[in-house]
Amino acid sequence: MGNIRGEVCGSSSGVDGQSSAVGVEGNQSSLQEEAYKRTEREFWKLERQRFCKAWEGKTKILICEPSIGDINYQAHETMCDLIAALKEYELVSNFKFFKSCLGRLMVSYAREKFAEYAVNVGFDYIMYLDDDHIWPLNIFTKLEKYIKDYDIVAPLCLQRQYPYTPVIYKSTYSKLKDGRTLYNNVKYAEVKEIKKGDIITDADAIGFGACIVKVDLLNRISRPWFFNQVGVGEDIWFCMKAKNEANAKILIDTSIEAPHLKDKEPIYWKDFKKAEWEMKIGAEGKTKYEELDEINRKYVEDKYFVNENKELENGEKSVVGYAKPDSGVEISSVSNVESKYFSPL
After folding, report:
1. H/E element holding 132?
2. Is 306 in contact with 321 (CB distance < 8 Å)?
3. Is residue 213 domain-shared with residue 291, that is, in the same domain?
4. DSSP states of 78-104 as a string?
5. Count of structural domains within the chain
6. Looking at residues 329-339, what average pLDDT do you find?
7. Residues 308, 251: one domain?
8. Most buried in the list 24, 68, 76, 218, measured by CB within 10 Å?
């Protein structure tokens, strides 16, 4: 039996019983190590729960910053300033704030682990703040008045890609013949006009660049909370689940902005309104963006280039653009000239 077990364990010693002992000892060591890790995890879970209970009577907020590791310095600085402001607010309020970090992780996994931690330890709210946003120092105190009556509360957040549309959505659901559900999300701004200062309570989903989520909501919906296979963002998926399974209430206060960082430039409401104007269709069937682009190109051509009709070697005629001698341009392509872009302020 010793030889047989030794061969199964992968030993080449050939000594009866020796490899068996090694296999058993190794297995026992592995089990002991796993038991120790499990005990350690349980110990720290209980310790965190105990620490959290020490603030009994306080409303406990867990501040979570999902990150893939590329934190913009502006976001980092505003986070430091925000934490300092919230610590001061603790002195005059019934709130206790905690900051948690998981390091570099896929965003959906980070949100899931933050949520799991909040449930296990006993927090009242999660405040998600993404590392590619900047936040006003009064973001919590402005949203505080809504958190008891709503499950998800958020300021105005915009996409960082042109045309910088608000990340607020309406959703539709259709049942297929095979029993599956078909989901469709439409940008809220395409359904209803949004005015700065609006309080929106009929949205079905939002982006989680900055928001406060009631931990009780997590206990009312199935897990996993932030993973899906339907091709939508983890935050949109969470809201859709919350709406369908728990009839979650969502509120967005558009008077508060959490600007999204596009490279190093924050995107504000004024940028969205400017892009919205540029995308409107004019009388000739072109968007303002296209009209302005044509004006811009013509301006560049007139200032820097001269076009001449040339006859090619094969007899065909073509218009060839040359840089004007006094233009300071050494190329003959309009697209390579950096120029001022005309648009309203």
Report:
1. none
2. yes
3. no
4. HHHHHHHHHHHHHTTSSEEEEEE---B
5. 3
6. 39
7. no
8. 218
The residue ranking higher by pLDDT, 261 or 151, is 151
pLDDT band at 250 (very low <50, low <70, confident <90, very high): very high
Q: What pTM was computed for the model?
A: 0.69
* Pick from 115, 99, 109: nearest CA to 65: 99
At which residue do the structure tokens 């607010």 appear? 89
CB atoms under 10 Å from CB of 124, counted, come to 17
Does one domain contain both 25 and 66? no
Q: Which has more confidence, 50 or 161? A: 161
| Rg for the chain, CA atoms, rounded | 29
Domain boundary among 276, 293, 316: 276
Look up residue 69 and give its DSSP letter.
S
Task: State whether 167 and 295 are in the same domain.
Answer: no
Q: According to the model, what pLDDT value does residue 278 have?
A: 75
Q: Is residue 90 part of a domain?
A: yes
- Look up residue 268 and give its amino acid: Y
What's the pLDDT at 309?
63
Domain of residue 258: give its range: 55-276
Query: pLDDT at position 280, please?
Result: 74
Per the CB < 8 A criterion, the answer to whether 243 and 132 are in contact is no
Confidence grade of residue 76 (pLDDT, cut at 50, 70, 90): confident
Residue 345 lies in a domain: no
- Whether 342 maps to a domain, the answer reads no
The helix (run of H) or strand (run of E) holding residue 293 is helix 288-304
| pLDDT confidence tier of residue 25, bands split at 50, 70 and 90 | low
**pLDDT tens for each residue of 193-215:** 999 999 999 999 999 999 999 99
Backbone φ, ψ for residue 257 (5° rounding): -115, 140
> Which residue in this structure is represented by tokens 């501040």?
63
**Residue 72 · residue 261 · CB < 8 Å:** yes
Strand 152-156 and strand 250-257: pairing?
Answer: parallel
